[in-house]
Each structure stands twice: as C-alpha cells, then as structure tokens.
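Thread amino acids onto this structure.
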C-alpha cells in the first residue's frame, strides 16, 4: 500500500461515520423499524437510534479533525464490533429486518443478503481501523535479546 495512505485514512473513516450518522439523522425510520421488528419497544428503539446517530456524528468529527486519534480509533473499533455483532445476529434470522446501515437498503435481492454484505463490509472497516491504528501508533520494538521475555531468576531453596 502507498506510504501516504495511512495519513488520510482517519479522514476517510471519519467521512464514513459522518455519512452513516447523517443518513440516520435524515432517515431514522429504517433503523428504528429494524429494531422494532426484533420486538424492541418504539421508545427504546428511537432512543437507541438517536444515541447511535449522535455517537456516529461525534466519532466522524473526531476522526475527520484528528482530535485524540487514539481514543477515536478505539471508540470506532468498539462501535464497529457492536454493529458487527448485531449484523451477525440479523444474518442468523430466517427473515431479518433491514439494519438501516449506510443507506444500502433496497439494493439487494433480500435482507439476508444485505445483512451478509454488511457483515463483510464491517469486517473490512474493522481491518481498516486496525491498520490505521498500527500505522499511527506502532508498538515499540523489543530490545535485542529480549525476544523470549523476562527471564525468571532461579529459585534458591534454604538449606539446613
């Protein structure tokens, strides 16, 4: 991959989260109905969608502006893991509701295909977040001769 790719990846991830948040802000019905189809009460579904929308917009702004990038990438990882778990659950249902993710509803033959595609997409986004984190915050190299880890001192038993 090009060396400069890691420089603009936080902005690309930020735009992705801003797009998802704006889509839910303008069209919250799909995500809300997806939760209601799983027997979540309307008031709770609306509150969850509003909270996720606010979190996506906040996270998108953090990533786009590169504010506290380490925190933003950790938060993005956690949020994407929750979304991926939700999509995995939807993909196990015989007739899953639409997740309302990123405005991709309606381009698939059925909602199960949508859930499986979204699951794959989320795994790729998680990989991109991890790759970006590793490029911006590399682990320090182990000192030479320290590959095996700390060496325990031999125990000395008292002799009588």
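Threaded sequence (160 positions):
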């Amino acid at each position: 991959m090009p060396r400069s790719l890691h420089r603009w990846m936080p902005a690309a991830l930020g735009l992705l989260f801003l797009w998802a948040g704006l889509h839910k802000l303008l069209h919250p019905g799909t995500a809300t109905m997806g939760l209601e189809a799983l027997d979540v009460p309307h008031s709770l579904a609306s509150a969850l969608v509003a909270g996720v929308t606010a979190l996506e917009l906040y996270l998108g702004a953090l990533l786009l502006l590169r504010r506290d990038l380490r925190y933003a990438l950790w938060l993005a990882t956690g949020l994407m893991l929750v979304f991926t778990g939700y999509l995995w659950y939807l993909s196990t249902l015989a007739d899953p509701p639409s997740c309302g993710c990123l405005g991709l509803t309606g381009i698939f033959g059925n909602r199960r295909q949508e859930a499986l595609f979204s699951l794959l997409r989320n795994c790729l986004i998680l990989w991109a977040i991890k790759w970006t984190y590793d490029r911006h915050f590399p682990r320090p190299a182990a000192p030479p001769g320290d590959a095996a880890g700390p060496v325990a001192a031999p125990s000395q038993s008292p002799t009588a």
